[in-house]
Design a protein that fits this description.
Elements: H1 18-23, H2 25-39, H3 49-68, H4 78-105, H5 107-112, H6 118-145, H7 152-182, H8 185-199, H9 207-213, H10 216-223, H11 226-239, H12 253-279, H13 283-286
Helix pairs in contact: 2-6, 3-4, 4-6, 4-7, 4-8, 4-11, 6-7, 7-8, 7-11, 7-12, 11-12
Protein name: Transport permease protein
GO molecular function: ABC-type transporter activity
Main location: membrane
Amino acid sequence: MTEISERAFHSPGRGRGLVDALKNRYLLRLLVDKELQVRYRGSVLGILWSYVKPGVQFIVFYIALGVFLELNKGLDNYAVYLFSGIILLNFFGEAFGNGARCMVGNGALIKKIYLPRELFSVSTIWVALVHFLPQLLVLLIACFVVGWRPGPMQLGAAVVAMIIMVIFSFGLGLIFGVANVFFRDAENIVDLLVMVLTWLSPVMYSWERVAAAVPAWGLHLYLSNPITVAVELFHFAFWAPTLEGEWHVPPHLLTLWTPVAVVVALLFMLVGDLLFRKFEGTFAQEL
């Protein structure tokens, strides 16, 4: 009788998480194409909705907050300041929200065949990036119009900000994607979190208002949020180079809080990957 090593067998329905997802790039591309085609099937505007939604958000926030509440006072080029934060938060909201729903949304496929399930989570990041790029193009045009003069440090800050948001939204999407398989209430929690984090981030107002309203430990807690750091890095990259005078970044933004944000985002991704690998073997049964 031929002996077969037990190492040749794996627990059914369980893979190596992100490693398997990255090795199946062809399947990833198919999933991204599927998500985009399904989303815009029967749509007249199609990908143009990537411009319409942030445009409407910008107009509403600019009029309600910038004009009526006069939050634009003391912030030159407030339109650039506002829009640079909006598009970053839109990316986070889409990547996080779709990541939390992707397992349930692809339940029929998960129950029929086996493929690396983390591919669904990775595909939501790529779909969010596809929608983010047109918004970034609009931001760049606006920046050049008002005299954008970035240096290497500002361009590097924009790249780091996107890396933080990709990792953080991916990690949260994994955690809530697992939770949503077992408890559908997770979807509603995600919507609440996106709303809360939007208003707790310095998108419509400056971080200096927070510093003036909370004690030092509260500001430190505020700056330990990866979203806050990413938004401020985007302001540093796109808004600050359009100003004539000097703009004061949060204390130790580049030397302390950016590394903290990277570490926090990586921890969330690690926890999400571990939870995903632990429970993905039961997804088919639960769905």
